[in-house]
Amino acid sequence: MGRPDVTPVICNHQVLHEPEAVLAAALEAYVAIDSTDRVVGWNAAAEATFGHSHAEACGREITALIIPERFRDQHRAGLRRVAAGGPGRVLGQRLQLNALHRDGHEFPIEMTLTATDTPGGPVFHAFAHDVTTAVRAGRFSAVETAVSRGLAEAESSGAAAARVVEALGVKMGWPVAELWLVDVDRQLLLCAARHAEPGRRLGAFAIDELDYGMGLPGRVHGERRPLWIPDLAADTGSVRSRAAAAIGLHVAVGVPIWAGSTILGALCVYGDRAEDPEDTLTGLLSGVAAHVGQYLERRRAEELAVELARTKDEFLALVTHELRNPLTAITATAAMVSEETGTLTPQELGRYLDTITRNAQRLTVMAEDLLDLARLESGHLAIHPTAVDLAGIIDTAVQAVARPVADKNLTVTVTVPPRLPLHADPDRLRQVADNLLSNAIKYTPAGGTITVTAGTRTDDDGVDRITWSVADSGIGIPPADRPRLFRRFYRASSALDRRIPGTGLGLVITRAIVERHQGTIALADQPGPGTTFTIELPVKPPA
Ligand code: ADP
């Protein structure tokens, strides 16, 4: 390994008489080793870079000191080859490789390796510096590019979500990456896409639905901020963290996906170890989540435009069908009354007038619902809360439907305490009660039962809540229709198949009223016939 014609370095030995001082002051880590792999040179920058002091490093085998275990054999073989006079593939090259710090973490370095001959054999000189920041920036920008491209090219929200988690998984090396989205209708989080590295079996970890507050996605959604779980095994309170730990995952990071001030979901990654500091990583993920949020918002706007066109068609169909039917009944009955005025018995006249009144009421309800819908869409569905008693409201509403209940021979059971005080808008609560009761009557065949229950309880957060449910033994709602039930004009196939009249507006308005009271309404997931709607209302709505 001769080194002929070495170009001189020092021009003035009087000024630069101590080359070692130069190495000592260098900002590059300087590491020299002999042909047996022992450290013979180690400057202050090497101490700072690799964590070992000069005293600790000198004389140690470099391979065991700073080379990650999986590369050690390869490194030793290379060194033997060069020491035996073989070609040094790494000599004179600028290399990027992974080094091991004294504290056990791996990090990328850029290094150049040269050799000089000494009487004792060749000595190898390495100049190196930590390139974590540059490598990370490259990795982050690769992820951002892949995400932007994925979102631009995706043909559907599902495909977009898949591209995002793939970019995080592949480019960042996270074994598992997930994108969760809120399902407003069902009040839970759905896994829109999951990327798992090949060969990693997910077992119980691979679930696709999470209740609010559950798992990392549910917690990110609930707390509305990025969350970091440094040790999944120690997070014993969470079933999902335990499932993650069971498949060898150690850390997890999740960030919310925002659209304005609304959280659309959460982006979560799970890994064996965190290579980047918490702030840096949540920064990257939040940037990606912002892209996703903007994409979803854009998509939503497009879907709304399509829905608006569809709504217009549906509205026309509704007007022609649902308004024309009662109008025809009123006009025809009124015409009959006027033609037969002289010959009608009082009972016949009473029946005709009843028909007219019933159909006129149907039109009034529909007109009010449409007005409420318009108010809802323009954000003007006002509520005027005051101290009210829900028990009284339920009672009056049940009494008001005594006639249709008797006509259909239905049994109504009301289990409500004598008083249920809360702070709410009495007229709007009555509207909710009327809506749920009239649906229960309308969609329950003769002879069926309707059960109304309500009561107060204090939830885990110490908030007093009223739970109020209306259950019936009627035609039920097929599972396929349930997710869309609270959309305007939506009618379940069970109602359409039986040609039961309706507009699909009542539940939309009911839900809006309940939500304006900071409450929730849900359709119970019950097997078998019948339907149960459950409303939860805070006794005192939060300020
Ligand atoms: P409408 O009853 O006027 O169609 P709603 O918005 O009140 O409108 O209800 C929407 C749909 O939900 C109904 O068309 C019906 O398919 C279904 N639905 C609501 N309540 C019940 C119930 N108690 N039993 C069965 N289906 C119901």
Layout of helices and strands, plus pairs?
Blueprint: H1 19-25, E1 29-34, E2 39-42, H2 44-50, H3 54-57, H4 62-66, H5 72-83, E3 94-100, E4 106-118, E5 121-130, H6 132-153, H7 157-172, E6 176-183, E7 188-196, E8 209-211, H8 215-223, E9 227-229, H9 239-246, E10 251-259, E11 262-271, H10 278-339, H11 346-377, E12 386-389, H12 390-400, H13 402-407, E13 411-415, E14 421-424, H14 426-442, E15 449-458, E16 464-472, H15 493-497, H16 506-516, E17 520-523, E18 531-538
Parallel strand pairs: 13-15
Antiparallel strand pairs: 1-2, 1-5, 3-4, 4-5, 6-7, 6-11, 7-8, 9-10, 10-11, 12-14, 15-16, 16-18, 17-18
Helix pairs in contact: 6-7, 6-10, 7-10, 10-11, 11-16, 12-14, 14-16
The protein binds adenosine-5'-diphosphate.
How would you describe the overall organization of this protein?
The structure is a single chain. The chain is an alpha+beta fold and 543 residues long. The protein is built from 16 helices and 18 strands. Helix content is 43%, strand content 23%. It has a six-stranded antiparallel sheet with strand order 8-7-6-11-10-9, sandwiched between helices. The chain has a five-stranded antiparallel sheet with strand order 2-1-5-4-3. Strands 13-15-16-18-17 form a five-stranded mixed sheet, with helices on one face. It has three domains: 111 residues, Beta-Lactamase (2-Layer Sandwich); 169 residues, Beta-Lactamase (2-Layer Sandwich), CATH 3.30.450; 228 residues, Heat Shock Protein 90. The protein is elongated. Adenosine-5'-diphosphate binds next to α14, α15 and α16.
